[in-house]
Fold this protein.
Amino acid sequence: MTEPIITLRNVTKRYDSHTILKNINLTLESGKFYTLLGPSGCGKTTILRAIAGFMQVSEGDVLFAGKRINEVPANKRNVNTVFQDYALFPHMTVAENVAFGLTLKKVAKDEIAQRVAQALKLVQLADYGDRAISELSGGQQQRIAIARAIVMAPKVLLLDEPLSALDAKLRRQMQYELRDLQQRLGITFLFVTHDQEEALAMSDEIFVMNQGEILQSGSPVDIYDEPINHFVANFIGESNILPAKMIADFQVAFGGHQFECADAGIPDNEPVEVVIRPEDLTLTTLDQAKLTVTIDTQLFRGDYYEIAATDNLGNAWLIHSVNPAEDGETIGITFRPQDLHVMRFGEKEAEFDARLETYEELEDDDVDET
Amino acid sequence: MTKRRTWTYFLPYGLWLALFVIAPVALIVYQSFFDLGHHFTFSNYSTYFQSATYLKMTANSVWYAFLITLFTGLISYPTAYFIHQLKHRQFWLLLVILPTWINILLKAYAFIGIFSQAGLANQFLTFIGIGPQQILFTNASFIFVATYIQIPFMILPIYNALDDLNPAFVNASRDLGASNWQTFRHVIFPLTLPGVKAGVQAVFIPSLSLFMLTRLIGGNKVITLGTAIEEHFLTTMNWGMGSTIGVVLIIAMIIVMLLTGDQKSKGGTPR
């Protein structure tokens, strides 16, 4: 484990009576790609501003490489920001924009020229130095904004929804480029977005936020496969969430049936929720069905069909299937035990992790015995 | 069809423009080519450009307009910047605008009262032991009052420019390591320069033709082009000469407009 470069300890932010951040704790290790993911107004940009130094936190500590930097002004912090609307200075050329920070630092002229050229090359706009900002397309401005930040060689790069203004195709391309850039430079990236697809594609670790709290943190795969609660499950990817009841360890009941599942450590008969991802559901014949549903509508999505169906208890189901179904057809669906994920109401991340650990050990023991 | 309809919307103002802007300017240009005997001539222009009095008057007008604009700017930019940081900025802005609702003549007379021998200013000077001074009818008092009157017209465009400035630029500058002063010098001021230019236009051009204040406050010691025009039209009845000065004034205004206009410069300015 590398040493943490940024730590937020019990950070709270209030505006008048309004609490924007509630007791945030997070640790960023150097050289990784982190994402703050959440709906607008959840406080993710506020965290970024607290780290950048544009805003003072009400309580708690902001630490940079172990040192408290709450009182250090933004211009003295070794972090740089890529702004949502890029904030490129319109009265300067591309090269002047990129050179801005170095000029202030009184770096030698030829070194500035060399580093600016290098940064522009890195974002693949080597010949654009003399252009005016207004002559650039959105995607090019985006890259210049990145070049202007990385030319400062920061320890941490903060990116505030930098891709939100780009069209879908360019956004995908920039996702690759950003990820590639981060890995080549080895700088810690803290990326803020409300787009779960972006977060899943690029991050080493995601912090899912809502209403000023971090609900869950973990690798994209962990968060996708084992969301902690209804909000996370719903926000990340598409999902079928059903009310259920825990019968015993590895046994859960919903939709009028009892199923084997992969979750344990929950008291028997506790009401819970079950998540099943649409792509984990398979259409099958009625005799092999775990559940029977009636097809309502389907949409062709190119690489799959998105099928909306209803079971006999009135629960709505979303199914991704390679093969089409007939509207109005009654059809069976099936899934594997590990495709079910059980969520307890009101469980906190620490409790969730602790519970996962107990029974994952149990599973390992089972393996040893056999 | 639609084109014709939009044209009719413009008609009322178009008439106004034609009758009260274009026609008078055309008349002034026309008049400037006639002498006192109503004969067509260029002599007005040759008189103007050969007369030391007129040229000095022109230089005077430009110099005083420059001074008024300079002092207005020096006071207005910090004020606009300060007001923009305040919590109740709309209220403070209202206080700035308030004096413009009062007629300029009333303000001039008020200053005559304040600056006169027994006025408030001299009472204060007596009180602190300096004794009464001649304040009214000095160049300094003329510049002071003119500056006072022009300040709102400079503060407003600068304030608006500051308001339009995307705060992300300021954050970006800080983020890249600029101190407050560096941010102001390299980012805020250059980006609000259009507001300053608009303010200069709004102050410099009217200041060129000030004539009421030169008489009431300046005691006619400062003769500006505005005063000269008034004299020619109302006292000497030499409309041709008055019009010529008017034309010169209009050209001067156009030059100022061009100088302070929004040239679309290509990117940054070399330093």
Observations:
- The CA atoms of residues 251 and 260 of chain A lie 5 Å apart.
- Chain A touches chain B through 34 residues (CB under 8 Å).
- Residues 366-370 of chain A have pLDDT under 50 and may be disordered.
